[in-house]
Design goal:
220 residues, single chain, alpha/beta, Rossmann fold, six-stranded parallel β-sheet
Length: 220
């Protein structure tokens, strides 16, 4: 299990007004909208989600780095747990033509609005129960998704990642290292249910039997 930097290549490029998330609206109401995983979360106001999640090519950097790090070749299978609108999966198909991709997301809106290039390979479903056989994928990834689960669900999801992967696995979750990052995370998050330090996350990985790579993103 290694610490990787993939999402870190683009994470800090986004400007965030932490206080606006708690001062401009009722944060609880915004979160209630967000956890419906519908229009408000993806394409509504920035206060309740992405504020319009559109393809801009930024994930290509991440796809290129993963293809190199995990030695991805044409014909290999990649699963994205929490695939959203399929932007990263699309970029995988361009970074390594001939790769087979699959995506799953709890959001029917996200799947409905997935990029046409990968939409046939994506489906609505839960990270806690993946509809694929054991050892089916050469690479299984999950980016900023699993921290949205309660602890019992989190353990199930990590077990499922282990089950469907042949070997390579990578996940990225939100964390905090100090009080400022903890407060910024609490201000900014809308759907997070697992608030942990890196040490706590690593304990969860060990207890669940997760053996893949990981990355933590922070709100500095």
């Amino acid at each position: 299990m290694a610490n990787r930097e993939f999402v870190g290549l683009i994470h800090k490029s986004t400007q965030r007004d932490y206080l606006a998330r708690v001062n401009e609206v009722d944060k609880a109401e915004a979160s209630e909208k967000a956890i419906q995983w519908g229009y408000d979360y993806w394409d509504g106001d920035r206060i309740s989600g992405y504020g319009g999640y559109k393809y801009d090519g930024r994930w290509r950097k991440v796809a290129d780095a993963m293809v190199e790090a995990y030695n991805i070749k044409p014909g290999m299978r990649i699963l994205d747990i929490g695939s959203g609108k399929g932007f990263l999966l699309h970029d995988f198909t361009e970074a390594c033509p001939g790769v087979e991709v699959a995506g799953i997301d709890i959001s029917s809106y996200g799947i409905q609005h997935t990029m046409e290039t990968v939409k046939p390979h994506c489906q609505v479903g839960s990270a806690t129960s993946l509809p694929w056989p054991d050892n089916h994928f050469d690479l299984v990834i999950s980016i900023t998704t699993l921290h949205n689960l309660y602890v019992d669900e989190l353990f199930s999801a990590l077990g499922e990642m282990e089950r469907v992967a042949k070997e390579s696995k990578y996940l990225c979750v939100e964390g905090y290292r100090n009080e400022r990052e903890k407060m910024n995370l609490m201000y900014w998050q809308l759907t997070c249910r697992a608030f942990h330090t890196p040490q706590e996350w690593k304990w969860i990985f060990e207890q669940s039997g997760y053996t893949g790579d990981h990355e933590f993103i922070y709100f500095e």
